[in-house]
Design goal:
Length: 651
C-alpha cells in the first residue's frame, strides 16, 4: 500500500479570543499522496487557510497528529520546521508577498539564500525559472514594475527555487484578472504534470474543478473529500523541477549566510533612507559630541600641562614673602643672585636660574612699538625651563658675566616686530631707552596669556641698564635625578633660611602643580566619560526604538522570509547586521563631522588646541558597533521569535 506523503489524524486548531477558545479546525483526518493535485474549498471562515498554514508548517496544530513522510511534525523544533519549509514546500500567496525592494531575481532566489546555495548557482537557477515562466526580460524589474500576473509568476518561481515538492497555493488567482488567472492555473497544471504535489485553497468552483481531488471544509470540518478524475500521466526530466545543488561545507555555508544577510541588510537600509537616517541620527550626534569633547579636552589638558611645565619640569620655585598673595612680598629684597649661586654649588641641584622681572617695558623697532614683559635671567634658565631657540642662540654665561646688551625674544614678539621672511638675528631693538641686539628666538610664548610679548635678557644687564634693582622676583631650581623634589625642597629651605637669618621666602614644588593637575585631569576624564556614556546610551535607546518600529513595520517581510525557509537565526542575524551597519555608518559620519568641527574651531579660536586621539576614534567605532549589537539585539530577537503565520497575517 502506498505511504502517504502527508497524513493528519484528529487534528484540531484552537485560538484564544479574550477568555474564549475558538475551534477553527476540528478533528481533521486527511491523507495526501505524492503527486496529488488537491483543491481545498469552503466559505470564508471555514478554516481552509488555517489548514493550509498547518500543512505548510507555518502554524502548529493545537491537538492531533501531523506527519510528513511518517515524521511527526509536532516533534520538530523551529530549525527543523524551517528546513521543511525551505526544502519541501513552495508557497504561492494571493497577494504575491514579494519584497518590494528586491527585483524579480532577488525575490526568486530568496529561498535558495537560506538553503546556503552559492550566489552563482542560485542566480543561474532564478534566471532559468523566470525565463521558463515567460519573465526572462523582466528579471531586473521590481514588483511595482510588474503586472499582477507577472508578480504571481515570480511568486511561483520562488516556490520552485529549492524544488518545491509540495506547492501550496492560497487563492492564487484571487487578485488577478481572468486572463492572468488562467495563465497561472496553466502553470500549476504543468507543474502537476511534472510531478509536484499541488494543494490549492480556493472558494472558486471553476478553479477547484481543475484539481483531481476536491476537499470541502465547513465550520472547521471536512465534509466532503472526493476525487474528480483519474490522475493524468506525469512528465519527467523537466528543468523546472530540478532541485538546486547545495554546498556541504559548514564553514562555507556560514560564510554565505553571513554574506547574504549582510547583502540583504544593506539593500534594506539603502531602500529605506528616511528610516535609516533617523536611526543613525542619534548615533551621529552622540559620536560627534563625544569625539569633539574628547578632542577639546585633550587639547586643553595638554595646554594646561604645558603651562605648568613651563615653570620647569620637576622644578622648585622660590619666592619672597610667606605665600602667594602676600601683600608685603614686594618690600622683601633679601632674595638675591648670590642665593642662586649658593644653591648652584649644592650637589643635589642640577641647575638654578635667578629671575628678575620688569613688566610692561616699552619696546620699539623701527616704527613699531609695543609693551613687553622683560625677564632678566641666567644662562641656566633655558635648561631649567627646557626652552629652546628656533632661530639664533640662547643666552650664554659670557652674556651674564659681561652684562651684554643681548636679548632672546619669544614667537609673539617676532611676529609683532618682524616680517615672516625677515631674520631678527642681529637686529637692534629698543627696550626703554637702551638698544639690545637680538641673538635668538625662543620656541615658547607666554604660558598664561598667548597675546603678551616676552623677552629675556641677562639679569646682570637688567640691573645695570634698565631698572637698577638687585633683588630677584624668584629663583627656579631643578634638583638632580638622584633626589626627590620633596627632599630637595627641604634642603633648599634649610640653606636659604640660614643665609637670610630667617624664613622670609616660600617655595612651590612644581610636582605639586602637576599632581594637582593630574587629579583635575582625572576628574575631567570622569566627566567626559560620563557625558560620553549618557550620549551613547541615549543614542542607543533611539536605535532600539526605531529598530522596534522597523520590526513592527516589517512583520510581513519577516513572515515571507520564514515561509521560504529562513531560520530564526537568519532573521536575528539580518536585523543585527542592519543595526550594526547603521550604527557604524552613523559613527563614521559622526567622526567626520568631529574633524570638521575641529578644523572650524582651530580657525575661529587659534589659541584653542584640538587633539584627536587615535584611541578615541577607535573607541568611537567600537562603541558604534557595540551599540548596534546591544541595542539591536532586543528588536532582532523580537523579529526572530515571530511565528511565520503570525508575521504573514499581521497588518
Amino acid at each position: 500500500m502506498t505511504t502517504p506523503l502527508i497524513e493528519m489524524k484528529a487534528l484540531s486548531r484552537n485560538f484564544l479570543s479574550g477568555e474564549q477558545h475558538i475551534s477553527v479546525l476540528k478533528d481533521i483526518d486527511l491523507k495526501i499522496y505524492s503527486g496529488d493535485m488537491i483543491a481545498i474549498t469552503g466559505a470564508s471562515g471555514s478554516g481552509k487557510s488555517t489548514l493550509m498554514n498547518i500543512l505548510g508548517c507555518l502554524d502548529r496544530p493545537s491537538t492531533g497528529s501531523y506527519k510528513i513522510r511518517g515524521q511527526e511534525v509536532g516533534e520538530l523544533d523551529d530549525k527543523e520546521l524551517s528546513e521543511l519549509r525551505r526544502n519541501h514546500f513552495g508557497f504561492i500567496f494571493q497577494r504575491y508577498h514579494l519584497l518590494p525592494h528586491l527585483d524579480a531575481v532577488g525575490n526568486t532566489e530568496l529561498a535558495a539564500i537560506y538553503a546556503d546555495a552559492t550566489k552563482e548557482s542560485r542566480r543561474k537557477r532564478a534566471h532559468m525559472l523566470l525565463s521558463r515562466l515567460g519573465l526572462g526580460e523582466r528579471c531586473e524589474h521590481k514588483p511595482n514594475q510588474l503586472s499582477g500576473g507577472q508578480q504571481q509568476r515570480v511568486s511561483i518561481a520562488r516556490a520552485l527555487m529549492n524544488g518545491g515538492e509540495v506547492i501550496l497555493a492560497d487563492e492564487p488567482t484571487g487578485a488577478l484578472d481572468t486572463q492572468s488567472g488562467q495563465e497561472v492555473m496553466e502553470v500549476l497544471q504543468e507543474l502537476h504534470k511534472l510531478g509536484h504535489t499541488i494543494i490549492i485553497v480556493t472558494h472558486d468552483p471553476q478553479i477547484a474543478a481543475i484539481a483531481e481531488r476536491i476537499i470541502e471544509i465547513h465550520d472547521g470540518k471536512i465534509i466532503n473529500d472526493r476525487p474528480r478524475t483519474m490522475p493524468e500521466p506525469r512528465l519527467t526530466d523537466s528543468p523546472i523541477s530540478e532541485v538546486n545543488t547545495k554546498q556541504k561545507s559548514i564553514l562555507g555555508g556560514w560564510i554565505r549566510r553571513f554574506n547574504s544577510a549582510f547583502y540583504m541588510a544593506w539593500i534594506t537600509i539603502t531602500c529605506h533612507r528616511m528610516r535609516t537616517f533617523l536611526t543613525m541620527l542619534g548615533i551621529t550626534v552622540g559620536i560627534t559630541s563625544v569625539v569633539t569633547i574628547v578632542a577639546v579636552g585633550e587639547g586643553s589638558k595638554k595646554q594646561v600641562i604645558e603651562a605648568n611645565r613651563s615653570f620647569g619640569e620637576n622644578g622648585i620655585m622660590i619666592y619672597p614673602g610667606h605665600s602667594f598673595g602676600d601683600a608685603n612680598s614686594a618690600d622683601i629684597d633679601t632674595l638675591v643672585p648670590e642665593d642662586a649661586k649658593a644653591l648652584h654649588n649644592q650637589h643635589f641641584i642640577d641647575s638654578v636660574a635667578p629671575i628678575m622681572t620688569s613688566y610692561q617695558q616699552l619696546l620699539r623697532y623701527r616704527n613699531i612699538s609695543a609693551n613687553v614683559d622683560v625677564e632678566g635671567v641666567s644662562e641656566q634658565y633655558f635648561r631649567v625651563k627646557r626652552v629652546t631657540t628656533t632661530e639664533g642662540r640662547p643666552l650664554v654665561k659670557r652674556d651674564i658675566d659681561t652684562q651684554a646688551q643681548v636679548v632672546v625674544i619669544d614667537l609673539n614678539t617676532r611676529k609683532k616686530l618682524f616680517a615672516d621672511d625677515e631674520s631678527p638675528i642681529g637686529q637692534t631693538i629698543l627696550i626703554g631707552a637702551s638698544p639690545w641686539q637680538v641673538v635668538g628666538v625662543s620656541d615658547k610664548t607666554n604660558s598664561w596669556d598667548l597675546g603678551r610679548l616676552s623677552v629675556w635678557i641677562p639679569h646682570t644687564s637688567l640691573t645695570t641698564r634698565l631698572t637698577g634693582k638687585k633683588n630677584l622676583n624668584s629663583i627656579i631650581a631643578r634638583p638632580s635625578d638622584e633626589i626627590s623634589s620633596v627632599e630637595a625642597e627641604q634642603y633648599i629651605t634649610r640653606i636659604l633660611t640660614m643665609r637670610h637669618g630667617g624664613k622670609d621666602f616660600f617655595t612651590a614644588n612644581n610636582n605639586a602643580f602637576l599632581q594637582a593637575q593630574e587629579k583635575s585631569t582625572a576628574t575631567l576624564e570622569l566627566l567626559k566619560s560620563s557625558i560620553a556614556a549618557i550620549s551613547l546610551i541615549v543614542a542607543g535607546i533611539g536605535v532600539m526604538n526605531i529598530m522596534l518600529m522597523s520590526v513592527k513595520e516589517r512583520t510581513r517581510e519577516i513572515g515571507i522570509r520564514m515561509a521560504v525557509g529562513a531560520r530564526q537565526s537568519d532573521i536575528l542575524l539580518q536585523f543585527l547586521i542592519e543595526a550594526v551597519l547603521v550604527c557604524l555608518i552613523g559613527g563614521v559620519i559622526g567622526i567626520s563631522i568631529s574633524f570638521g568641527i575641529g578644523i572650524l574651531l582651530s580657525q575661529l579660536i587659534p589659541s584653542l588646541p584640538i587633539i584627536f586621539s587615535i584611541a578615541s576614534i577607535y573607541a568611537a567605532v567600537t562603541c558604534s558597533s557595540m551599540i548596534g549589537i546591544v541595542f539591536g539585539f532586543f528588536p532582532a530577537r523580537n523579529a526572530a521569535r515571530l511565528t511565520p503565520v503570525e508575521a504573514l497575517t499581521r497588518e
